[in-house]
Amino acid sequence: MRMTFRWFGPGDPVPLRYIRQVPGVEGIVSALQDLPPGEPWTREGMERHADLITAAGLRWDVVESIPVHEDVKLGRPDRNRWIDAWCRSVEQVGAMGIPVVCYNFMPIFDWTRTELALPLPDGSTALAYDDDALRRIDLSRGTGDLPGWAAAYDAQALGALLTAYQQIDEERLWENLAYFLERVVPVAESAGVRLAIHPDDPPWPIFGLPRIITDGAALERLVGLVDSPANGVTFCTGSLGADPANDLPAMVRRIGPRIHFAHCRNVLVTGERRFHEAPHPSRFGSVDMRAVLRALRDTGFDGPMRPDHGRMIWGEQGRPGYGLYDRALGAVYLQGLWEGLEG
Ligand code: DNO
Question: Does the beta carbon of 110 lie inside 6 Å of ligand 1?
Fold first, then answer.
């Protein structure tokens, strides 16, 4: 296992020089954040970004993410153009010697929360999700201030997309994912890059949109779509762990060698489709982190791992889920756990 840390580029309130001081963190997880989905990544742009990381004494270990254009997920006639652009970016990633690309196949919305700063009893705040609150969100004004969502759509663009997705049920989305993977996996293979799909977060349909990467059966189906080591998974304990029916260690044991990246985060499930994020150690949440890490160890995981979202603690202000302090505690906890399992 190699401990890594996400960095959102020069605009990130957490500077690389602080990340460098987190014990054991050598690798950075990052992306060319400002490029719109579909825009191919250039060598020049990647080198500029990599230089900043190297100058801080760190290494760019994982690209998270190269966004997949909605036309690909919708299976629209011009999807090949966006898939080609995605392939060109993957080739650049390979040429830079970065071994893993994390991506997702969630329609319109990436990770979604209904509350960005839920106060916890200890005075910290955490990201939270409540399906009832989600149903009360009015999308007729666009994505506006929907918590957690990075790309912004105005009312008209969002309405058009939501209408287009009415034709896409889960099986169609699987077909469109297979079409995408059949084209990108061979390119990743030749570029020396392993693709790692991120599970849907939360792992159930939201706003009436299909979500398919939600459980163990889905992960097994995914790796079977194109049977290549380059077609793998980001094992995100927080996303998958929000559904109590998911047995995370069992999932790891089934798809083990195809896990190329681990996102470790705890969530406390507080009701039906309702949870908030919690400190990383097992006792604070619904994820048995020790059992997950043991399964990763037993299946020979030697890839990058990162602490996922943290709470906001010690008065830190910044990007929700991505402050320095609680993630740093997570990184150290995860390394301690791993070390203990080595014994
Ligand atoms: C949230 C992240 C996700 C992830 C994408 C990968 O904090 O884990 O936004 O980067 O889903 O494509």
Answer: yes
